[in-house]
Amino acid sequence: MTTATAANGFTDAAFESFLETRSAEPDWLTTIRREAWQAFSEMDWPARNDEEWMRTDIRMFHLDKFALPTEPATAPELAPGLLTHDVELGGTLVSYNSSATEDSLIGELASKGVLFGSLDRLVVEHGDLLRPFFERQVVNRTHDKFAALHAACWSGGTLLYVPKGVAISQPLHGMSAMGDSGVDLSKTLVILEEGAEATMLSETASTSPNGGGLHCGSIELIVEPEAHLRYVNLQNWSTSVWHFAHQRATVDRNASLQWTIGALGSKLAKVNQQVALTGPDANAQVNGVMFTEGRQHLSYNTHQHHMAPYCRSDLLYKSALQDRSRTVWRGMIKVDLAAQRTDAYQRNDNLMLAPTARADSIPGLEIEADDVRCTHGSTSGRVDEPQVFYAMSRGYTRTEAIRLIVAGFFQQVFDRITIESVRNALGDAIASRVQDLDQQAAPEVQG
């Protein structure tokens, strides 16, 4: 990022300069960007009296400390992704500070009409194909000021498009990396046409363990009739990054989605994750793994929207919290009048590893149909000292015993994940962060 760029920030002049760098984009996309920028300019920042934001304080966030990415960034050598160990990939996309640095797809998939790679590039090359999906407004561009900002200024995104009836056996992998004080505005767009099948692994990382930055992004998953998608998203920014995201999937008739979220990083995260079941017999499974430490604050709002009959959704989020960290989970199952014979479930479990940690869990139901089965649950508790003592009596150290208990706590989620590399990566990442419970009560931690 140049000094001049940083000085421009997110002003009208900076936005016009940003558009000049994207002159190759189709006119319809420029129109969408301008409309979103207008909405962003007119909207207020979220207030503490908003129900969605009352537990998440962003008064310390200042957008003017960051700038629009108007020039490609020079990427350092990046470490391999955590999700790719021993995985044969069908394609790879790597971006750094909102600019694609690596973009590849094996020839066998390309010959079948599969598109995978930089959304910046592919929206220029295949604008007519992608236009209907952009204009669907899968993610509400005016939900809040962050959604409008992203719709206007996204860059460095990833596209996966799988044509009708094509099944991909090799996973595709996307990595978004950020340097110190960097900005990531990436959009992920996945489109599976009727009868298609695919697996996509997506993750984030910071090049500096303490480097700050801003992510304002979106994920849009479109699963057409009888298509099947496995999608994994691992958020692993440094603990100094501000993370704002809107994520939404639409699942049509007889289609299925398995969506796994891992949330380990960021200073503050505010994420809206929505799944809309739009056709009969659609099925969605959502898995969430969250681990927090220090003073991290992770807030995830999940929404399971049943719009058609005979659909099933199953959501399980588990969180473990250390130090003075905090998680907020707000879940909602919404069942429309037309969505008879709905089967929906949501659950959030929290494991408190320190008396100074806090977990807010707010499940909810909004049901208009009268022939449904909808249930929800939430639990919060601490590690039992008798369990620690029992493991130590079998030769484990105290820290090893706690790691075993934490691993067992998450095992229910891991058992639902059908991708071995994802199970291993999440388990290893969490185990490396677990501290001794005695350290959690030390004065320097309570600070």
From TrEMBL:
Domain SUF system FeS cluster assembly SufBD core: 182-409
Domain SUF system FeS cluster assembly SufBD N-terminal: residue ranges: 25-172
UniProt feature coiled coil, ranges: none
InterPro entries tied to this protein: Fe-S_cluster_assembly_SufBD, SUF_FeS_clus_asmbl_SufBD_core, SUF_FeS_clus_asmbl_SufBD_sf, SUF_FeS_clus_asmbl_SufD, SufBD_N
Residue stretches spanning the membrane: none
SUPFAM superfamilies reported in the protein's UniProt record: Stabilizer of iron transporter SufD (SSF101960)
GO biological process terms held by the UniProt record: iron-sulfur cluster assembly
Similarity field: Belongs to the iron-sulfur cluster assembly SufBD family.
The protein's name: Fe-S cluster assembly protein SufD
UniProt source species: Aeoliella straminimaris
